[in-house]
Amino acid sequence: MSVRRLAEDTLQPEGFKFDRANAAEAKGWIRKYPKGRQHSAVIPLLMLAQDQEGWVTRAAIEHVAEMLDMPLIRVMEVATFYTQFQLEPVGTKAHVQVCGTTPCMLRGAEDLMAVCQRKINERQFVRNDAGTLSWEEVECQGACVNAPMVIIGRDAYEDLTPERLEEIIDAFEAGKGDEIEPGPQIDRIYSAPVTGLTSLLDDDGKKPASSARKAPGTTSKPGATKGPGAARAEPGTAKPKTGKVSPTAAIASTASAVRPGKKQPAKSVADGNPTMKLAATASGRAKKPPKRSELTGSESPAAAAQSRAAGRDTPEAAPKGPARTRKPARGAPAATARGAASDKTVKAASQSGARASGAAMRDPVVHDEMGSLREDKNRPAAMERPAAPDDLKLISGVGPKLEEKLNGLGIYTFGQIARWKKAEREWVDGYLSFKGRIERDDWVKQAKALAKGGVDEYVRVFGRKPR
C-alpha cells in the first residue's frame, strides 16, 4: 500500500472545531456505542470533519482524539490507512475520483482521466487555478457492470463517455452539481442489461405484448430526450407526466406485465428436498411420519396393550374393506383379539425391537431431527422442570436452541448430563443429529465440573471460563 502522509504544515489550519450541526451529530454517533467503546466512533467523526472542511486536517485529527479520549496515534493510524480520507486540500466544488481498475480501464477510464487532466490539472491531487476542482485515480468502486465510472463526493456517476464527464465537471464548476442525477448516465436502470431485459420474458423468448404498460400516473412520450435530472428507464418505457418515476417503480411496471407460460403445480413444504423437510418438521408446518398403526389401519398389539394399561378403550372403526393383517414378529405369539395383546405379546414385541411399539419403553416414542422414529430404551431419564433449572448454555456447544431441545427431553440440570452413560450419550447424539459432537465437546466432563462447583470448578478443570 502507498504511504499516505498529512499535508505540509504550510497548508494546515491553526485549529478545528465542529460547527453546531456537526457537533450535535458527532455526539449522536458517540452515544450509539456502549460505555468504554466510544473509540468505535472514530471513522464517523473523521467523515464529519472531512464533510465540513473538505479534507482531514491535523487539527481535526487532534480534535477527534480529544473528543473520544483516544490516543492521537490511533486516530492518525485510521486517517492515514483509509483512502476515503483526503489528507490534502481538494477542490472546494468537486473532487473527481476516477476508477482505474481493469473493467473501467477496458471501457475507457483512460479517456476519462484525459478529460480530468485537460479540464482540471495535469497532476492528481493538484487543484485547478481557482481551487474549485481536483481529481485522482482510485481502485475499484464496485460498479464494474456500469464501467467506466467516477465518484464525486458520495455519489457515483456511471456509464460515462468523455463528453458526458465534461458536462458533469462543467456543472459542478458552475455550482449546479445537484442537478446531475447520480447513477447510470444512459437509459439503463441500475445494472440492468443495456440492451433491455433478458430474464423477464415469456417462454418463446420474446417480450410480452403488454411490456409497454405504463406505471401509475405516467404517460408515454415517444422520442423524449434525456437531460440532467430526467427519469431513467428502459428504452421504450413510459416517461413521467409530472415529477420523476423511481427506478423501482419502472422495474415493477415491467415485471407486472410478465405472465408465466404455465401454472406451476402446487407443492407442499414437505415435498421439497431433505433440508426443506427437516426445516418444515422443526417448524411444525409438516406432519410427522405416521405411526405404523396409522399405516396398517389397526393398532399394533403392543400399543393396544399400552392403551389398555392406561385405562383407555381401543377405538373400533367399521372396516371399509377386507381387513389387512400383518404377520407377527418372529418369536411373538399372535394376538388373541383385535386391539388387545397379552403381557407375553408385549414382551415379545419389545424384544423383537419393533419400532414404535413402546410397550417396554419408559417414555413415549419420539422423532429425531429427520422425522424418523427412535427407540427410547436408551433415552436418558427425564425429570419435571425444577423451580431453578441449571443454565445448560454454560456447557460449550450448547446454545439457546439446544438448551430448549434438551429441556424438551426433560433434561434441566448439570447432574443429569453428568450421569449419562455411553448408550444415553449416543441416543441424545443421534436424536440431535450431532454426529459425535457430544463426545468431541465432552459434555459429561463439563457437566460434572459445573455440577460440582459451578463456574469456579469449571475454571479449575478446564483453565478457562465456560462459553
Account of the protein in words:
There is one protein chain. The protein has 17 helices and 9 strands. The protein has helices at residues 20-31, 42-53, 58-67, 72-81, 102-106, 109-119, 162-173, 247-256, 274-283, 292-296, 301-309, 343-351, 400-408, 414-418, 422-431, 437-441, 443-462; strands at residues 94-99, 133-138, 150-152, 155-158, 183-184, 218-219, 239-240, 366-367, 373-374. The strands form 3 sheets. It has a 5-stranded mixed beta sheet with strand order 2-1-3-4-5, with helices on one face. A two-stranded antiparallel sheet has the order 6-7. Helix 2 (42-53) packs antiparallel against helix 3 (58-67) and helix 11 (301-309) crosses helix 12 (343-351).
Gist?
This protein is an alpha/beta fold and 467 residues long. Helix content is 35%, strand content 6%.
